[in-house]
Amino acid sequence: MIHISLHPEELFTIGGFTVTNSIVVSVAILLFFAGIGVIMRRRFALIPGMAQSIAESGIEALLDLMDQVLDDRKKSEKYFPLVATIFLFVLVSNWFGLLPGFGSITLQRGEGFEPLFRSPSTDLNFTLALAIISVLAINIIGIGTIGVAKHMRKFFDVRGPVEFFVGILELISEFVRIVSFSFRLFGNIFAGEVLLVVTQFLLPYILPVPFILMETFVGLIQAFIFAMLTLVFISVAVEDHDEHEHIPEKRSSY
Q1: Domain for residue 102, yes or no?
Q2: Which domain holds residue 217?
Q3: Fewer CB within 10 Å: N-end or C-end of the chain?
Q4: Complete DSSP assignment for the chain
Q5: Model pTM?
Q6: Domain tally for the chain?
C-alpha cells in the first residue's frame, strides 16, 4: 500500500520532546557534514590531492558567483559560510529521499508500520525553521553592517506618510519571505517524492528512473534558489539606502 503523509511520523520521545523520522535524518546529515569537515581539516595540505582540489574548485566557483551579486570579494568571503552551509544542507536533504530503499525501512508501531527515515525537505517544520533562520540571519547581518537605527528605519520610517507605508510593506514582506521560502522548498520536494512513490507502485524498476533523474535536478535547483535568494537579500540588507536618498543637484555654470 502507498504510504503518503504530509506530517512526519513520530518515532519516540525524549524528555517530552518528540523525535520524528525527519529529525533523525537531519541529525544524520549534520553528523555527516561534521565528519567530513573534521576529515578535511586533518588532511589539509599545501599540495592538494584530488578531493581537496575538487573542494577548492567548488569553493572558488561559489565565491565567483557571490562576487557577481555582492561585487566585493571580501563580502563574499564573509558571507560564504552561511550561503554555502544553506546550499549544501538543503541539497543533501533534498537528495536523501532519492536513495534506494530509503523509505522501505520501517518500524512497527501498534498494528502498522511507519518509515524510519524521511527527507527533511518533505517536512514543513524543517523548511519553516530553515526559512526563519535565513530571514533572521539576513536581518542580523543588516543590523551588524549598517547599524540598528538605519536597518530598522527600513520598516519604521516616520519621516512621511509615504515612507511609513513603504516601511510597513517592507515589514510584511519579511513574513511573506518566510512563507515563500518554506512552502517553495517543501512543495517541490514533497510533490516529487509523491510522484516517485506513485510511479514505483504503477510500474516498478522502469517508470521511476527518469523521474529520479528529474528529481535529482529539481533538488539541486531548489537548493541553489534557496541559497541565492538568501544571498540577494543579504546584499539588499547591507546596503545603506541613506546614501542614495539625496542626489546633489547640478547647478548651471551659466
Answers
A1: yes
A2: 10-240
A3: C
A4: -----SSPPEEEEETTEEEEHHHHHHHHHHHHHHHHHHHHHHT--SS--HHHHHHHHHHHHHHHHHHHHHS-HHHHHHHHHHHHHHHHHHHHHHHHTTSTTTTT-EEEETTEEEES---GGG-HHHHHHHHHHHHHHHHHHHHHHH-HHHHHHTT---S-HHHHHHHHHHHHHHHHHHHHHHHHHHHHHHHHHHHHHHHHHHSTTTTHHHHHHHHHHHHHHHHHHHHHHHHHHHHHHTS-GGGGT-PPPPPP--
A5: 0.83
A6: 1
